[in-house]
Design brief:
Layout: E1 5-7, H1 11-18, E2 28-31, E3 36-41, E4 50-56, E5 74-76, H2 87-92, E6 94-99, E7 101-106, E8 115-121, E9 127-137, E10 143-153, E11 164-166, H3 174-178, H4 185-188, E12 200-204
Parallel strand pairs: 4-10, 5-10
Antiparallel strand pairs: 1-2, 1-7, 3-4, 3-6, 6-9, 7-8, 8-12, 9-10, 10-11
C-alpha cells in the first residue's frame, strides 16, 4: 500500500534525473490520492518522454463512473498483468510517478493513533515509482488521464512498518518500463521487486502528515522516536 508521498525536488533536478522537459514545479510534501501527481510517460505517437500531471487513482477506460479511480490508487505487482482494471495499461500504458519519499503508518500497541514514518533514498535524490496510466472519456467528451502506483512485498527496512511497499524502479530500467512497444510480461515483471534495503533510509515523522491539507516541509521532518517502536 502506498497512500501518501512527496515530490519536493525543483524542476531542474527532475529534468536532469529523468531526461525530460519540466515546467515550474511547486514542492509537494504530502501528496494524497485523487490529487494531481507528476509523471513521465511515452506514447506511440510521441516517442520522446513527456512530463504530465495525472489524477492519482486509475480510472479504467470502461468505467461508468470516474469515482472508481479513488479505489484504484495502487496495483499489486503480483497480479497486475491479469486484473481487468490494470492489464491493458500494464501492456501498453506505463509511466514513471515522480517522488523523493513516501509515508507509511505503523500500528502502536499502547496508542490509538498509528505512527507515520517517512521513507526515502539515502542520498535524497528523486526517484520513480512504477506506474500505469489510463485515459477515460465520458459521453460528453470529458477526458481524465489518471494513474496508479504498483506495490510489491516489503524489503527489510519496510517490514517492521508494513508488509507492502511501492515499486521503486532502478533508473537503468526507465527506458524499458516506458517503452509502449514492450508488451510481454516476462520482460516487465522482473523489474517489480522490492528496492534494496541498503540504499534506503527511514525515520518517524509527526502526525502533521495525517491530514492531506497539511502540505508543507514539516511533514518530512524527523522526530525523536526509535524506528519500529
Amino acid at each position: 500500500m502506498c497512500g501518501r508521498f512527496s515530490q519536493s525536488q525543483p524542476a531542474d533536478a527532475i529534468a536532469q534525473a529523468f531526461q525530460v522537459a519540466v515546467p515550474s514545479l511547486t514542492p509537494r510534501y504530502n501528496i494524497a490520492p485523487t490529487q494531481s501527481v507528476a509523471t513521465v510517460l511515452q506514447t506511440p505517437e510521441h516517442n520522446d518522454r513527456q512530463f504530465k500531471l495525472l489524477y492519482w487513482g486509475l480510472i479504467p477506460s470502461w468505467a461508468k463512473d470516474p469515482k472508481m479511480g479513488a479505489r484504484l490508487i495502487n496495483a499489486r505487482a503480483e497480479t497486475v498483468a491479469e486484473k481487468p482494471a490494470f492489464r491493458s495499461a500494464f501492456r501498453q500504458r506505463r509511466c514513471l510517478v515522480l517522488a523523493d519519499g513516501f509515508y507509511e503508518w505503523q500500528k502502536q500497541e499502547s496508542k490509538k493513533q498509528k505512527q507515520p514514518y517517512y521513507f526515502r533514498l539515502k542520498d535524497a535524490r528523486p526517484f520513480a515509482f512504477a506506474g500505469l496510466w489510463e485515459r477515460w472519456q465520458d459521453g460528453d467528451n470529458e477526458t481524465i488521464e489518471s494513474c496508479t502506483l504498483l506495490t510489491t512485498e516489503a524489503n527489510e527496512l519496510m517490514c517492521p512498518i508494513h508488509d507492502r511497499m511501492p515499486v521503486i524502479l532502478d533508473p537503468m530500467h526507465y527506458d524499458l518500463w516506458l517503452n509502449p512497444e514492450v508488451k510481454k510480461r516476462e520482460f516487465l515483471e522482473p523489474l517489480l521487486h522490492p528496492y534494496p534495503t541498503g540504499e534506503m533510509a527511514a525515520y518517524p515523522v509527526s502526525q502533521t502528515v495525517n491530514k492531506p491539507t497539511n502540505d508543507r516541509a514539516e511533514c518530512i521532518e524527523s522526530i525523536k522516536i526509535p524506528l519500529g517502536q
